[in-house]
Design brief:
The complex is a heterodimer of chains A (229) and B (195). Chain A has 229 residues and is mainly β. Chain A is built from four helices and twelve strands; from the N terminus they run ααβαββββββββαβββ. In chain A, strands 2, 5, 10, 11 and 12 form a five-stranded mixed beta sheet that branches. Classes of the chains: A mainly beta (229), B mainly beta (195). Chains A and B meet through helix 2, strand 1, helix 3, strand 3 and strand 4 of A and helix 1, strand 5 and strand 10 of B. Bound molecules: fe (iii) ion (FE).
């Protein structure tokens, strides 16, 4: 593998096995604009935007009890390609409940809603680039891509940093999921890079007798500033 | 030092609304951004940015998310997003909407026309996410009533495709609207950037 392949971690826009890409991916070449957009910033959000329980999905939608399911802690570091932490980055997440059901109104999967679970959270990374959510492990759910298609367990992430390049939407998966090989969304990523989307189980980060822990680090493009090159 | 590999992108999927655009869709969760890029006290002449996102069959896309990021009327980006306690003029610069709440799947942002940034023509940065899109799509919106041909980016676009980056000015009962339709495919396919 040459180093270009090694650093090419992104899926293509058109990936026909994921059928919705066929009518929704541009067909013309993408216009190179690096030089013109490299100094463009993105907005910085402040602590005033974050509510007290926004990073605790086990608490932020309680109505009459605790949400059902396996309580977990998802944490990690947001960095640029040189491993430098990116502080004050806005992370927004959303996910299905433990039964694999989204609260979204268009959702049609026949699995129960949980009155005490919304499945949305947000927080800012701290000065070391770290973030941490408490949540419930999401269940798998079927979708309409092909006959009996199921998504592996995943949490959706939206990430907004401070440079124009630092805008990422992705999904975090769990180790050893038997659905990986059947999921065209996961498979759209080059084979060598799929491991970057799989959280690492961290026994040493668990809250003893309370919640298991997963580590998911996020690396953003750093082409605007390359002091080590 | 060995460089780290970038985290791969994945689709936003169809179910983002209750987290990313909760207020617009009526979910019981607050939103930190919405379709108002300005506040009540931002001066400079209010405008609306409206449009539809079309798929390769010319069908309006009902489950996309669109983000706008723009300079203020003086051509400055507000990199410090104004917190609620002491907003100077409540200009936010950043807006986000889903296309799922309007019956025709249009988006409609309330804003002001940005000033020129570093000699470039007034423009708004546009980012799209949607089911069926594995990576973000990035483009720029220019204004039909500005001179755009001198703009460093615009003038680099293939002349036959420049019209896809121009929002058309319309007046609607005294309010000023710029219509920016986005085509993912077809003869009017919007120019997207390699970001
Ligand atoms: Fe999902």
């Amino acid at each position: 593998m040459n180093s270009n392949d090694h650093y090419n971690t992104q899926p293509p826009h058109l990936y026909p096995a994921y059928k919705s890409t066929i009518l929704r991916s541009p067909t013309q070449p993408f216009m190179p604009v690096n030089e013109l957009l490299k100094d463009l910033s993105l907005p910085a959000f402040g602590e005033s935007f974050i509510g007290e329980f926004d990073n605790d999905l086990t608490k932020n939608a309680r109505k009459n009890g605790e949400p059902i399911g396996e309580r977990i802690k998802v944490s990690g570091k947001v960095m640029d390609e040189y491993g430098r932490p990116l502080p004050n980055v806005l992370i927004e997440i959303w996910q299905a409940n433990s039964a694999g059901r989204y609260i979204h109104k268009e959702e049609i999967h026949d699995a129960p809603l949980d009155p005490n679970f919304l499945g949305a959270g947000r927080m800012l990374t701290n000065s070391d680039g770290n973030y941490m959510f408490y949540t419930i492990k999401p269940g798998a759910y079927p979708w309409g891509n092909h006959f009996n298609a199921w998504r592996p367990n995943h949490i959706h992430f939206s990430v907004i940093g401070h440079q124009f390049e630092h805008r990422l939407v992705t999904q975090m998966y769990f180790p050893g999921d038997p659905l990986f090989e059947f999921d065209p969304i996961f498979q759209s990523v080059p084979g060598h890079a799929r491991e970057l989307l799989i959280a690492r189980f961290r026994m040493d980060w668990t809250d003893a007798d309370f919640a298991l822990a997963y580590e998911f680090n996020i690396v953003m493009n750093g082409k605007a500033k390359t002091p080590f090159e | 030092m060995e460089k780290l590999r970038q985290t791969p992108s994945q689709t936003v999927g169809p179910f983002f609304a209750y987290s990313l655009t909760a207020f617009q869709y009526g979910y019981d969760y607050n939103s930190i951004v919405n379709g108002s890029i300005i506040g009540d006290h931002t001066g400079g002449g209010q405008i609306y940015i409206t449009g539809t996102i079309f798929d390769g069959n010319g069908k309006a896309i009902p489950d996309a998310m669109i983000e706008l990021w723009q300079a203020d009327t003086q051509g400055n980006y507000t990199t410090k997003y104004p917190g609620s306690p002491t907003p100077e003029n409540q200009f936010r610069g950043f807006g986000r909407l889903g296309t799922g709440t309007d019956p025709d799947h249009q988006f409609c942002f309330k804003t002001v026309k940005p000033g020129p940034v570093n000699g470039q023509s007034p423009h708004i940065n546009v980012t799209l996410f949607m089911r069926g899109s594995l990576r973000r799509l990035s483009t720029r919106m220019y204004f039909s009533d500005e001179i755009n041909e001198e703009d460093a980016l615009f003038s680099n676009v293939d002349a036959t495709r420049r019209h896809t980056l121009i929002a058309r000015r319309k007046e609607n009962n005294g309010s000023i609207e710029y219509q920016f339709d986005i085509y993912l495919q077809g003869e009017n396919e919007t120019v997207f950037f390699d970001v």
